[in-house]
Amino acid sequence: MKVVIVGGVAGGATAAARIRRLDENAEITIFEKSGYISYANCGLPYYIGGEISDREELTLQTPESFNARFRVDVKVRHEVVAINPDRKTVTVRNLSGGEVFEEKYDKLVLSMGAKPIRPNLPGIDDERIFTVRNVEDTFRIKDYIDATKPERAVVIGGGFIGIEMAENLRRLGTEVTLVEAAPQLMAPFDGDMAAFIHAEVRAAGVKLVLGGMVDGFESNGKSLGVRLKDGVTISCDMAVLAIGVAPDTALAKDAGFELGIKGSIVVNERMETSVSDVYAVGDAVQIKNFVTGKPALISLAGPANKQARIAADNICGKDSRYNGAQGSSVIKVFRLTAAATGINERTAKSEGIDADKVILSPMNHAGYYPGGKIMTMKVVFEKGTYRLLGAQIVGFDGVDKRIDVLATAIRAGMKVTDLTELDLAYAPPYSSAKDPVNMAGFMAENIRDGLVGQWYYDDEPTLPRDGSVTLLDVRTAQEFATGNIDGFVNIPVDELRERAGELDKDKPVYVICQSGLRSYIAARILAGRGFEVYNFAGGYRFYAAVVRDKLFAERSTACGKDA
After folding, report:
1. Which domain holds residue 501?
2. Which residues are identified as catalytic?
């Protein structure tokens, strides 16, 4: 069996290695357009910033080492320029020597990935404008920085690459402006959770321009001008385009393959394309969103590697199926870690799913153990069914652990209320006896059982200030004095039982504290006395971050006060 693989990064290299493990006799050839294979895409920005210092660390394998281990003929700097399904060949151009030839296959795997979007804007071809796709791009940026020592940089795009590039350029001492066309950074997050990221980025010295549309570039002598549609021009010494990626599928289109979203390659659960004996994996393929069941593009290394394994299995006679991806991801944002899985509240609404959420700010481990740090969790679920839809977490320590538990729960089809039953490891340095994931389940259970109603930050502007409702802040007087919401009265929770008579039982009560814990206790106290009570989801700490751009608190006490 002769297997040809187009693309030697992530999916391509994984498919080749898996095929060899299943079939010692298969003839396997990889054609890779760049000069490198199996390199660490996700590590490229960290080499630019010096976090990864050795170029060799970026390349997990060389053509020679890969061949030595797997007996795979790896041809770098070879570009496949055409697929010829009728004769089961690919047309290949040797970029080093220029010759063009055809290579036969019995099975073909397409792993071309996605290419950075480079819009046709005035001045876009300036040599000081960079993209980050491969090792060569990375070396080009690093060499430019080493040679010119740029003082100012503009990063265009606030996704994973954009934020990572902004952080690593700041690490070098460069003045960075981050421009994002949307009203928020990081599309996998809802706007309220992205607010924590915004505050952290600004605190790190990055100038953040949200809602900024770039309409061109201009050369101003030694400086480069990034022109926005609102007429503002930002001067810099270099710019990095990180506005997203598009499936690299020109080959498939020219060969008549069935295409889907944004020109992506349509595949079935076996990773088979519409053309016989041709498989496709990675960022170039349309897959199923595991949560919604609808077609999706999810450009992440994890799904690409899983798809490659499944394609290899099927090439070798097994029957493996890919059931979709939920987009689990994590990113370092200066001091913070931000992670997401499944769908966010915004997506749920756009898909017509009636969603609810719980928001909590637990410590990463037992409150009495030194060094605990806050995280904020938003867990989204379907009303009525309580089906777990997604989660977002921002914090300092322990974020990755909790998002992985929640990602597993989604994959297992669990309800949010099932999170209460998870038997998670506990020791004071690592967690609490009631882990934050368990706590999210308890909160959803309280909603299901009618023990508490919720109100949210975007309800605040419309809350009546005419005396028809009671607006109650149950933090300490000292906390209240440091910041509060207009119209709220302060009765500390520990005084509430004695002072409940000061409140009108005929008026609904909207209650808030710093984290949501004390206000829940207050809500139960008042509910037990016949009040109609609504607890604020997330606490004043969450409100201040979302509405007032306050920097995320790092530590709190066991009862939810900021330390």
Report:
1. 453-548
2. 42
